Structure formats: C-alpha cells, structure tokens
C-alpha cells in the first residue's frame, strides 16, 4: 500500500513536471511581436514605406537561428530583414500602389522549439493593423502678394495632380510640381485687395492663407491692329520693372476668337517685355482684353478684313 502511494505521488510529480515544461516552452509567449510602425504614414514621392516590428524570443527552447520574421500585406507574405539598429527588430519596405489611402497588415513569425531533443515548428502572429496615409498638408505660399499673372508656389506634402488652387473660390491655373509643391498663376482679378487662397482636392479642402493682389502698370504697343486674313503683326507688352520669379502670365481674352490666332503670352522672369505674333483669322471686328493691369483693363482693338 505504501509502495503504491509512493508510486502514485511519483507519477503525479512527473506529470506536473511535463505540464510545467510544456507551459513554459509553448504558447503565445514563445515570441512576442511588438509593432513599431506608425499608424499614420507621412507621404513621400516614391510611395515606399517601412514597416517594422520587434520579434522578441521568450522561450528558452526557441532555436534563434530558425526565427523567420514575416509580414503579410494584402494577403501576400514577405520576408523581413534585420534592422540596422539591431535588438531583434526587423523591417520591410513596401510600395503602396497609387490611389490607396490605407493598408492592412499583420506580422508573422515562424520558428522551431526544441525540448528534450524533440523539435517542432511553431508560429506567432500579431493583430491585424491598418495604417493610413496622412492626407495632404499645406504649409505655406512662397509669397503672400504679387500682381495678376504672377506664378506663386505652394509647399506642403501629399499633393496630387487632382489638386487645384482657388482664390476666393475662383479656380486659378494650377501646376503640379511634385507631391511637395504646387504653383498657381494669379488670375485676372481686381488688384488692391486681399484674397483667400485654398487648395481643393477630390476629398477635402484646405486653406493656405491670404494673398494680396498688387496693381501693375503695363504698356502695349500697338494698341490697335488692322489685319488681313493670314496676315501677322507683332505686339509688344512691356512692364515698368522685371517680371517676378516664375514669369508673368498675361491672361488675354477676346470677343472675336475666330478672328485672332496668337500664342500664350508670358513675360519671362527677370525680363521687362515680350513680343508675340498676332495673326488674322476669319473676318471680324472686336477687341483683345487684358484684365488686372493699368486702370483695371487694357483694351486692344482688332479688325480682320
């Protein structure tokens, strides 16, 4: 009877030892995964973002050489590389496709556990996480005042080709320079006033600041044109001072578009004047209009016979 009790106690102790060992060497704590990736990703021109995590072994039975950190993005598994900073940190560079504003992912670790000469492969997972691309950020305008036609830069982050600049709600001709820069031409609006500049995108609107339109005199020669069909005459536009950085766009309109053939008029940066050819089209009589200069509007009469 005494022998049976000793035998049973011995078996219970052996079973408890096995359970304790299995509890120590198995389970979700064998490798802890700590996500080090920010929840919001700052936009960059290459659209490549670094996902990183710390894979910390917790089990004494884990074979460190077998540890294979991975990341699962859009259902595809990618191997991660050791980070230069060390400390069981791994990272992966992923290029997020155009048009995406967020990406879901999780980390995965495969490894071997060896105990009492027996080894087995295990896996650990992190929770599924969604990272969002930080939306467009507008920092400032390069200048806060200038004449009609001036080209003004806007700096920020996350710009796209779909962004446009408005002045008091009126669309301005906008140029996409890069994801970090836009530029716009001050439209033909009355000078001597302050206007609210806004960047408008497909999903949101962001105020940039206040821009003052300054008056600027201009001399046009000649002030009237008499042309035959197909005949060409030169017209010179002159400023009292050099055109600003980016040049000066002269937004010229006409009430006889079929009678006038002419190129876009831009006075180059640093230059005081530009000469352009005006060609007669279909017969007609009317005017060319340049708004925002001189007394508010410069009128050039034109007649095509």
Give a written overview of the molecule:
This protein is mainly beta and 305 residues long. A hairpin with a 4-residue loop joins strand 18 and strand 19 (205-214). The chain is built from 1 helix and 29 strands. The chain folds into 3 domains: 2-133, Sandwich (Immunoglobulin-like); 138-214, Immunoglobulins (Immunoglobulin-like, Sandwich); 219-304, Immunoglobulins (Immunoglobulin-like, Sandwich). The longest helix has 24 residues, at 2-25. The chain is rod-shaped and about 105 Å long. It is 8% helix and 55% strand. It has one helix at 2-25; strands at residues 31-35, 40-41, 48-57, 62-73, 76-79, 81-82, 89-95, 102-115, 118-125, 129-133, 137-141, 145-147, 151-157, 164-167, 170-171, 173-178, 181-185, 193-200, 205-214, 219-221, 224-227, 232-238, 248-250, 252-254, 260-261, 265-267, 273-280, 284-291, 297-304. The strands form 7 sheets. Strands 2, 4, 5, 8, 9 and 10 form a 6-stranded mixed sheet that branches.
Question: What is the β-strand count?
Answer: 29
Instruction: Spell out the helices and strands N to C.
Output: HEEEEEEEEEEEEEEEEEEEEEEEEEEEEE
SS content category: mainly beta
Mean pLDDT across the residues is 86
Question: With helices defined by DSSP (H or I, 4 residues minimum), what is the helix count?
Answer: 1
Classify the helix fraction into a percent range.
under 10%
CATH topology of the largest domain: Immunoglobulin-like
CATH architecture of the largest domain: Sandwich
Gyration radius, to the nearest Å?
A: 35 Å
Major beta sheet summary: 6 strands, mixed
The percentage of residues in β strands lies in over 45%
Shape: rod-shaped
Low-confidence stretches at least 5 residues in length (pLDDT < 50)? 1-9, 11-28
């Amino acid at each position: 009877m005494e022998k049976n009790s000793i035998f049973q106690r011995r078996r219970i102790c052996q079973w408890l030892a096995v359970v304790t060992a299995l509890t120590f060497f198995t389970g979700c704590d064998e490798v802890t995964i700590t996500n080090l990736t920010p929840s919001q990703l700052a936009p960059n021109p290459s659209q490549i973002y670094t996902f990183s995590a710390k894979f910390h072994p917790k089990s004494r039975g884990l074979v460190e050489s077998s540890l294979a950190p991975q990341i699962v993005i859009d259902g595809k598994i990618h191997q991660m590389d050791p980070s230069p900073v060390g400390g069981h940190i791994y990272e992966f560079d992923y290029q997020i496709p155009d048009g995406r504003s967020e990406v879901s992912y999780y980390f995965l670790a495969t490894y071997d556990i060896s105990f009492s000469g027996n080894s087995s492969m295990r896996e650990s997972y992190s929770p599924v996480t969604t990272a969002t691309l930080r939306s467009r950020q507008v920092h400032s305008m390069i200048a806060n005042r200038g004449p009609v036609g001036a080209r003004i830069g806007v700096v920020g982050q996350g710009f796209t080709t779909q962004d446009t600049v408005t002045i008091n709600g009126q669309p301005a001709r906008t140029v996409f320079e890069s994801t970090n820069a836009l530029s716009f031409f001050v439209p033909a609006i009355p000078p001597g006033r302050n206007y609210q500049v806004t960047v408008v995108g497909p999903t949101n609107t962001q105020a940039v600041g206040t821009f003052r339109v300054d008056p600027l005199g201009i001399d046009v020669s000649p002030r009237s044109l008499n042309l035959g069909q197909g005949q060409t005459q030169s017209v010179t536009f002159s400023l009292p001072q050099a055109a600003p950085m980016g040049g000066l766009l002269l937004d010229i309109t006409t009430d006889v578009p079929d009678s006038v053939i002419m190129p876009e008029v831009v006075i180059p940066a640093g230059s005081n004047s530009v000469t352009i050819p005006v060609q007669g089209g279909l017969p007609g009589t009317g005017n060319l209009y340049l708004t925002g200069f001189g007394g508010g509007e410069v009128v050039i009469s034109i007649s095509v016979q």
